[in-house]
Amino acid sequence: MSSTSHNDPSLAILQQFFTTATQHASAAMCHWTRGRVSLTLDELTRVPLEDAMFQFEEAHDLVTMVVLGVDGSDGAQLILAFDDASGRRLAASLLHREPSNGPEWTELEKSAVMETGNILASAYLNELTRLANRKLVPTAPHFVQDYGMSVLEQALLMQAMSSDEVMVSRTRFEFDSEQVNWNLMFFPDETLRDSLQRAVVAAS
Known about the structure:
disordered N terminus, alpha+beta
């Protein structure tokens, strides 16, 4: 069930915005996977920067990720993360083959999950573009295999220069109607947070 932190009224309105963005991303994902995958907003929270690492349960695990930035932003990041088996299951479903069990991902597998990240990010940011009245376009996706904490540290580095807190949007995925260990996390930068906050004021 989705939640906000500390019953913050402005965060509650922002959650409505992010819920709508997530619904658009889910529709795109459903189309891309022929109805097999959907997602819902799990949590929108605002936390001190030093606590942001704890928002990702797999921070200390080796995970597979597709990392995208937001063109022209000061460190905004979207991260699609999954364990190796879940990621390969996704790639296999898109490539219409059995999941690979080789030690290395093939280029086709990497391409499939990177395109998934690009489709998700584009749909998500298109809706936030409308809400924030600011054009938001994802950068090219990067395929990363590393410990979750290492990637999060890099994602938050730019934000640490301008803010002592971070807003985190996390989603829950279902594959063939079963919850799977995937996460889409969005870390908006300070400028985008300000744009969204102005939208909150206008909607209040």
